[in-house]
Amino acid sequence: MAEHTLKRFDEELERLSATISEMGGLAESQLAQSLVALRERDTEAAERVIAEDARVDALDIAVQEQTVKLLALRQPMAVDLRVILSSIKIAAALERIADYAKNTAKRSIVLTQGTAPVAAVNGIDRLGRLVRTALKDVLDAFAQGDVVKAHAVWERDEEIDQVYTGLFRELLTYMMEDPRTITACTHLLFMAKNIERAGDHVTNIAELVSFRSTGHGFDEARPKGSAAMYATGNAP
Questions:
Q1: Could you tell me the mean pLDDT of each successive run of 10 residues in the chain, 236 residues long?
Q2: 3-state secondary structure of 196
Q3: Whole-angstrom distance, CA of residue 19 vs CA of residue 63
Q4: Cβ–Cβ contacts within 10 Å for residue 149, how many?
Q5: Which 8-state DSSP code applies to residue 114?
Q6: HSE on the CB side for 50, CA within 13 Å?
Q7: CA–CA separation, 140 vs 135, rounded Å?
Q8: What residues contact 16, with CB distance under 8 A and at least 6 apart?
Q9: pTM (two decimals)
Q10: Where would I find the beta strands (DSSP E) of 84-178?
């Protein structure tokens, strides 16, 4: 009986991880499609991203339900408890990433009606590609339980911050030089911030991958570029 119960518990943990992997794949697709919508002025792609957000939310609820059931019925300890607790947080991070993709898609629809600086749009696309690659890699690290790979993703946060800071300054320059770009550049600023915040959540997931295996995150202070100043309103 004990062996049967243990096998059932392992199956439930695998199901939980599979739900998170499905959620992660969908969040990655959402982010990719929001960049397509921006880059190609594709309103239909943007609308698909907006509509698909409900699927991510449903998977988030499924993760919550599975974790509550596991905690209530199995009373897990040690590694198993860490896996369950980190699963809740990883799902929450993925839900936020999908939300940022949805918000980016919404703003891309508005931008189809105006003229946004091409170089700035390319900059947003570059930032988004960096975050999407980091998300793909951290999902691989999650699936493989690879703490080394998760740490490599964690270290990329500084590069994402630096690209975001460069975009922030570039967009301000456009607005000061040509007031006609203010509306479009304001939307691009919000999009850049959404994507940078998605990158922060990717970094959080990397730390949680470490926590699942080792019981702690990474010992170093998180690498941060100057984007942190702009996030807190302390930019010079």
A1: 64 92 97 96 96 97 93 79 93 98 96 86 96 98 96 95 96 93 94 97 96 84 55 40
A2: helix
A3: 7
A4: 17
A5: S
A6: 14
A7: 9
A8: 63, 66, 67, 70, 83, 84, 87
A9: 0.89
A10: none
